[in-house]
Amino acid sequence: MESSTPPPAGTARPLRAHAQRNRETLIAVARAAFAAAGDTAPLEGIAREAGVGIGTLYRHFPTREALVEAAYAAELDDVTTNAATLLAELPPEEALRTWMERYARFAATKHGMIGTLRTGWAAGRITPPTRRRITAEIAVILTAGARSGTLRADVDPDDVTAMLLGVFLSADAHGTPERTGRLLDLVLDALRPRSSTPERP
Q: Which of 29, 46, 109, 188 has a CB 3.0–4.6 Å from the CB of 35, allowing a cystine?
């Protein structure tokens, strides 16, 4: 005779926690896969790399579009929520350069997913990346740099966003990681106070 005693409270929690870990792992693997191969990266390979079966992937993300959009949202959140963390670890000038590198990786990953993302934007399932979120992060670092005297206080953060978008458009067209790095160095150089910018011969 089966016992009618209910299972202890919280019995289902390990399953929920396990499912959440699977979801987070799938998104992390998908971000890397889409950055490397675009949004046509094989879903079977993503599932295998995440250590789960393809059925588990489809339970979390019923369509390729759902996985692409989740990966994109995670990328955007990362790049628009880490300025304060960087400033806690690095001087403002270094924090900005590190953040720009992260933004460059985001731009490259987004470029690989752009076909699917456009479909999501048109259908209203996801909100396009807003310059406001990116510019707000830049403003946080510029403010800290102006306070310390290591970054200019007379720069509009949205102008910095425009410069960075120009760098990434150039990289998409015919750039290399090395060239992107040099261009980011030039952007940072333009943001230093004039008195601290080394004179060139």
A: 109
Is residue 123 packed enough to be buried (19+ CB in 10 Å), middle (13-18) or exposed (0-12)? exposed
Residue-level pLDDT at 201 = 43
- Region label for 13, one of left (φ > 0), alpha (ψ between -120 and 50) or beta (otherwise): alpha
- 82 close to 70: Cβ distance less than 8 angstroms: no
Give the whole-angstrom CA distance, residue 65 versus residue 70: 9
Domains of the chain from N-terminus onward: 11-62 (1.10.10), 64-196 (1.10.357.10)
Q: What is the pLDDT of residue 184?
A: 94
Residue spans of the chain under pLDDT 50 = 1-7, 9-12, 197-201
Quick one: pLDDT at residue 114?
72
Q: How far apart are CA 81 and CA 51, in angstroms?
A: 28
**CB neighbours of residue 21 within 10 Å:** 12
Are 135 and 161 in contact by the 8 Å Cβ rule? The answer is yes
